[in-house]
Amino acid sequence: MKATVWAGRNSVEVQSVPDPQILNERDAIVKITSTAICGSDLHIYDGYIPTVKHGDILGHEFMGEVVEVGKAVTNLAVGDRVVVPFPIACGACWACEHELYSLCENSNPNAGIAEKLMGHSPAGLFGYSHMLGGFAGGQAEYARVPFADVGPLKIDDDLTDEQVLFLSDILPTGYMGAEMCDISPGDVVAVWGAGPVGLFAMLSAYLLGASKVIAIDRVPYRLELAEEVGATPVNFAETSVLDELRDMTAGRGPDHCIDAVGLEARNSSTVVDTYDRVKQAARLETERPHALREAAMSCRNGGTISIIGVYGGLMDKFPIGAIMNRSLTLKTGQCHVQRYMRPLLERIRNHEIDPTFLISHRLPLDEAPHGYEMFKHKRDNCTKVVLKP
């Protein structure tokens, strides 16, 4: 089969690789009908995620048709259409029983590697390094899905792939980012990053009762999309974010701040941005935490900071003093996608959410390298690339 594989920093290739096979009685094989390039895939593309190897199959947002099932999978049948969540979860451990699916205790066969960096291991993830399981991803013609009796969500034929594909990751992730804020009616929410996850976080904040959402980015077409979902845009390349947020909130600051950027944040107009870029290039820190620092300094006293942008290791100059002294609450996590798929599917069915507005480009799988380049460099107003194997 054909698959998108990592070929070194800033390089992916579409290569012929062996077809996946059933390895466990709880596996399924899915023929991919739609997959997507995620913002967190760019962290791998840029070489910032450790334990990624040449030839690893990328991608964790995918859906398709079940073509084979292990004998223990009784909830799915050959021919079913399914969306596959990016965390792999067993459904039976303590974490899964508490709906903390991205922390599954049984799905990462390489837990020892993750424990050395993080203390404890999270769940295995599709297409996201050997530290997180070494599982082949879904930017391919076929994928093996472990614990298929727990993860995949069956989809009726009346909904298109594009309406439901983002249930695999970015829609639940954005929603969880807003949910972690415990929004009350009338609250003001600021979101750093107007990419796909940030836009879904903005939309979700309104669904959960926010009175005002502020979008912080520097790319005009992304800020225009934020305006289309009702957010007030702030271009950090043109103004002081802290000053703008104080002015918009009568000096108090937003009630909740959502970091939807992650480890490659930047603001080239600041000295600390240069500091971060040098330290990251020298591997003296793994993160560029500009957005998170700014969120911590902007949030009102007693407010909430929700982190859904991906971080991988260690950061410098983090304002823990502001968080402690000002009673800020910090909430974060890889999304527990399985918890949110069915409720969000119902919101799609009820026309409360139309995820398709994000899609700017549809490409055949063979053009994945072009899709990565376009998405990374924000060419041709690229917001989301859907690949068709």
Automatic annotation (TrEMBL):
Residues 196-264 form the Alcohol dehydrogenase-like C-terminal domain. The keyword Isomerase does not apply. Residues 25-153 form the Alcohol dehydrogenase-like N-terminal domain. Keywords: Membrane, Metal-binding, Oxidoreductase, Transmembrane, Transmembrane helix, Zinc. InterPro entries: ADH-like_C, ADH-like_N, ADH_Zn_CS, GroES-like_sf, NAD(P)-bd_dom_sf. Gene3D superfamilies: Medium-chain alcohol dehydrogenases, catalytic domain, NAD(P)-binding Rossmann-like Domain. The chain crosses the membrane at residues 189-208. This is Glutathione-dependent formaldehyde dehydrogenase. Belongs to the zinc-containing alcohol dehydrogenase family. GO terms for molecular function: oxidoreductase activity; zinc ion binding. It comes from the Bacteria.
